[in-house]
Amino acid sequence: MFEGKFYNGRTSKGMPAFITLEPNHIHIVWQTDAESGTEVWLLPDIHQLEFNDATTVLEYGKFPRQSIAVFEQGFRQALEQQYRGAKFLSSKYNSFLKTGVKGLVLGGLCLLTVAVVLFFWGVPALAEKAAAHFPEDYEHAMGESLYNRVLEGYTVDSAKTVALQAYLDALQVQSDFPIRVTVVENEVVNAFAMPGGFILVHDAILDKMEHHEELAGLLGHEIGHVQMRHSTKAMARSLSHYMLLSVLFGDASGISAVIIDNASSLYSLEYSRKAETDSDKAGLRLLAQNRLDPKGMVWLMERLNSDEPEFLKFVSTHPRTDDRITALNAHIKENKYKTAPNPALEAAWAELKGE
Description:
Elements: E1 2-7, E2 15-21, E3 25-31, E4 36-42, E5 46-51, E6 56-60, E7 66-70, H1 74-82, H2 92-97, H3 100-131, H4 136-151, H5 158-170, E8 180-184, E9 191-194, E10 198-202, H6 203-208, H7 212-227, H8 230-238, H9 240-248, H10 254-261, H11 273-289, H12 295-304, H13 312-316, H14 321-334, H15 343-353
Parallel strand pairs: 8-10
Antiparallel strand pairs: 1-2, 1-7, 2-3, 3-4, 5-6, 6-7, 9-10
Helix pairs in contact: 3-8, 3-9, 4-10, 5-15, 7-11, 7-12, 9-10, 11-14, 12-14
């Protein structure tokens, strides 16, 4: 017989108890100043909570579980002798050790696999989810710093920038961020969105356009990237391991610094097929909101679907243009679009093209 404390699971007060190890169960007699009682614990429903030479704590049943605490050193040995092989006596750690060297190696490989998966897939996925919840003012400030860093490598066409901003201002645009567009001199046909509402447009892509609806479609597409935070998420995923180090070293503000310091990664960002499809639809929505010909998106894609050298940068970082044209035509066919002239947009377009 052993002495210990009995806890009935309903109160935190321990009650003095005498514990007897019977062949098929543990018998407990407890007593307080006001009451007393007995308990019978069947072996299959017993669980160990703490099991060492100094203290043994066992639990019994389902919630709220009863428990006993015994502080006699001989109690553990008595349990092992009386109930040899009982399930509640087995330690998961000891069971693992019994698997031998092969078990240890297998366990180590499993842990290594989990670590690799978390590092290469888990961390980027978590970074992308975190980026989706950046406060808007934080993302805008980060985007502005990124925009200023990117512009250091370009020559801005001020006249075309003013004209393009005037065109944008004449559009009905729905966005959580103030949109700022800038035209830069570059012979590569390209345009890309940055976090927080900043859009950079190469003058080469403007020179190739023949209809202002193409421009509206392009702006709608890039604004879609901004609104859905595609560039923010893509950069966070790409730079996730650097961001993780910033967090681990307690420098949460370093997250934006990591992104800004790696501004060059903007040029090689590749969006998923879903992100491009969603942004194509955003371009169509902008055209519809302004009662412009939805074919503008198709004309834009057809113009970009080229093997000429100046188009290769755009083609290399975007999904297959043929597939997108097919999807756009199908979407236009399924929906009825009403169009109307827009003198303000046409005037801004003429100014932009120097007509």
